[in-house]
Amino acid sequence: EKHIVIVGAGHAGGTVAAMLRQLAHKGRITLIGEEMLAPYQRPPLSKDFLKGLVDIESLKLKHDEFYTAHAIDLKLNVAVEAIDPLTKTVRCQTGEILAYDILIIATGARARPLDVPGHDLAGIFTLRNVADAQALRRALEPSCRLAIIGGGYVGLEVAASARALGVEVTVLERDTRVLARVASPVLSEFFIEQHRAHGVEILCGVNLLGFEGCQGKLSGIRLSDGRLISCDSALVGIGAQPNEEIARRAGLACPGGIEVDEATRTSDPFIYAIGDVTFRPLPLYGSHKCRVESVPSAIEQAKQVAHAIVGRPPPPPEVPWFWSDQYNIKLQIAGIAIGADQNILRGTRADGKFSVFHLRGDHVVAVEAINSTPDFMLGRQLIARKTPILANNINDISKPLKETIY
Ligand code: FAD
Predict the structure, then answer these.
(1) Pocket of ligand 1, candidates 5, 11, 148, 161: which has the most ligand atoms within 8 Å of its Cβ, to mutate?
(2) Taking every annotated instance into account, which residue ranges of this chain make up the domain Reductase C-terminal (predicted)?
(3) pLDDT > 90? residue 403
(4) What residues flank ligand 1, with Cβ below 6 Å?
């Protein structure tokens, strides 16, 4: 029976270890992670965990005893520093060398740093792990001023959580709209409205020159137009970059993330990669490849690799999806608006309940649903089954969405 070594004990790594046992893999499984905690979910770090509504224990994917009970050798606080594909071994920072039959790289991504003057002042945070969330939480005293650099999902979710804690929040976004990389303009406008209604100041189209401080502590952010945004703390939320260095040094193809196929194979036949670190195909969208940073993508890839390793037929490809919670808004996105030639609004923004359907011809390629879970669910099915629809019926909310199907 094969020894499976998994590098990175995060969402993808933890899921694949458990799934291999579920699929009756009998051989050794070693799961190595550089963090102190057993695999846990990150989404609450910017939401309920930051607000202090849930504890660390509830973040864990499995209780600590699960790993011993299922003969998964979980090595925590251990970083892998090198992979040698020729001898099929990994070298840990501790000096330990481990041989594998199959290696799964699940090293995730890290927060992109902002290398501007003053970046090392106290009071500047990024958010990727529990330790980051705890440090940020300690800084969020009621009435203190938090500047958030980057109006992406992490930045906006932290803005909503910080408002719930009574913090004064300013979001600084370089683009002309928030969520520019990941959502349509209608959604950007909606989220700007909602955040402003909750007292968040949002400045778009601004460039940051540097952080300013006093006695080593952050006091403000200087913009290129000369303005100084006074603040006590800042969160840098400008995206993530893949932890691909060990794979690159091992000679694996890494064109911005570790390149994998549908079954998550890398360019080495004995090495797979899953989760945020991968540059992956989206089989429902032709030959398109990209990095997808979401829990559903990590789980889908964990399923693919576990099936491949135990010799089961590959599960069908899934529609990529994502969610975000801010205030009482539930955003759910199914699919990717690649090649869309029209988008249609169903519902109205003023009701706080609407969806944007992105179509290519008479096929749905993506749905962005605000507090509209049924639209999201049906949209996901339409994308997966490539069902043609009657576009003209989509914006007629007097008719159930099902009636848009031929
Ligand atoms: P990770 O969970 O990051 O795990 C990778 C692990 O590998 C880490 O523990 C890392 O320390 C470890 N590691 C790296 N290098 C090494 C090494 N050399 N040796 C040993 N260990 C190593 N997704 C959603 O779908 N919805 C959301 O609402 C959402 N909210 C999010 C909010 C926040 C604040 C963050 C940070 C992420 C959020 N995500 C969300 C994204 C989601 O958490 C990730 O897509 C998911 O965690 C990816 O899993 P992963 O295992 O690939 O990476």
Answers:
(1) 11
(2) 321-404
(3) no
(4) 7-13, 32-35, 42-43, 45-46, 79-80, 106-108, 127-128, 154, 243, 246, 275-277, 293-296, 298, 322-324
pLDDT of residue 62: 98
Ligand 1 atom 26: the closest Cα is on which residue? 323
pLDDT of residue 404: 65
pLDDT digits over 254-282, tens only?
A: 999 999 999 999 999 999 999 999 999 99
Query: What mean pLDDT comes out for the span 197-222?
Result: 97
Q: Which pLDDT value is given to residue 394?
A: 85
**Domain 113-238 in CATH 3.50.50.60:** yes
- Which residue has the least CA distance to atom 18 on ligand 1? 80
CA distances from 233 to 126, 220, 303, 369 (A): 11, 8, 40, 33
- Residue 385 carries which side chain, given as an amino acid letter? R
Best CA proximity match to 304, nearest among 107, 12, 55: 12
Ligand 1 center–CA 106 separation, angstroms: 9
Atom of ligand 1 nearest to the CA of 278: 52
pLDDT-derived band at 401 (thresholds 50, 70, 90) equals confident
Higher pLDDT, residue 331 or 399: 331
Q: What is the mean pLDDT of residues 168-182?
A: 96
Residue nearest to atom 15 of ligand 1 (CA): 107
Residue intervals of the chain classified under CATH 3.50.50.60 are 4-110+241-310, 113-238
- Give the per-residue pLDDT at 400: 77
CB 263 within 8 Å of CB 303: no
Q: 328-404 has which fold? A: Enolase-like; domain 1 (3.30.390)
**In terms of CATH, what superfamily is 4-110+241-310?**
FAD/NAD(P)-binding domain (3.50.50.60)
At 238, the amino acid letter reads: I
Give the residue-averaged pLDDT of 208-218.
Answer: 97
Rg of the chain's alpha carbons, rounded to an integer? 22
Position in ligand 1 atom list of the atom nearest CA 46: 34
Residue span(s) of the chain under CATH 3.30.390.30 come to 328-404
CA of 38 to the centre of ligand 1 (A): 13
Residue 307 three-state SS:
helix
Q: Which atom of ligand 1 approaches the CA of 277 most closely?
A: 52
- d(Cα 340, Cα 305) in Å, to the nearest integer? 31
Q: How far is the CA of 152 from the centre of ligand 1 (A)?
A: 16
Q: Quickly list DSSP for 333-352.
A: EEE--TT--EEEEEEEGGGT
